[in-house]
Design goal:
The chain is α+β, with helices and mostly antiparallel strands. The longest helix has 15 residues.
Length: 156
């Protein structure tokens, strides 16, 4: 597995990975309406492309294609963390999180924060993020609860 920066040309494959992963994993935690609302974001070609390119998005790849991706903004906002549905629990999410933490240290970002889903919360907690609140957001008339998580990094 190697890690590289996402390119605009990756957007279709990343959107497919995103949608398939949400459809496969979300039903364990979310209603059908929530799952389909969440997954449908991948069909917004321009919006999804902006989602990928608005920060620095790292992509994990091997000979089978893209395995996962994770993005971070310059202010420490973790924008995304997704692993291909057939490769979950194989260390890819952890490797991407290590890359994000390293990026934050190199760019002297002292606070990382994110809005974690039910199925990404465990990954964030494993890397020392703390839940400081929850929020309810609405997508296409469907409400979701998300966990607001943060982690502070000591910069020498």
């Amino acid at each position: 597995m190697r890690i590289r920066i996402a390119q605009a040309s990756d957007s279709p494959e990343l959107a497919k990975l995103y949608q398939e992963t949400v459809l496969a994993i979300a039903p364990q935690f979310y209603s059908d309406a929530q799952t389909h609302s969440w997954a449908s974001f991948a069909e917004d070609t321009a919006g999804f492309r902006e989602f990928i390119l608005s920060g620095t998005t790292f992509v994990a790849v091997d000979e089978t294609g893209i395995l996962g991706f994770a993005g971070i903004a310059d202010d420490g906002h973790i924008l995304s963390a997704y692993v291909r549905r057939d490769r979950i629990h194989q260390g890819i999410g952890s490797r991407l999180m290590e890359i994000l933490l390293d990026y934050a240290k190199r760019h002297k970002i002292k606070r990382l924060y994110a809005e974690a889903s039910e199925f990404s919360l465990g990954l964030f907690k494993r890397f020392g993020f703390q839940v400081y609140n929850t929020e309810i957001v609405e997508r296409q008339g469907v409400e979701f609860q998300r966990y607001l998580v943060e982690r502070f990094i000591l910069i020498p």
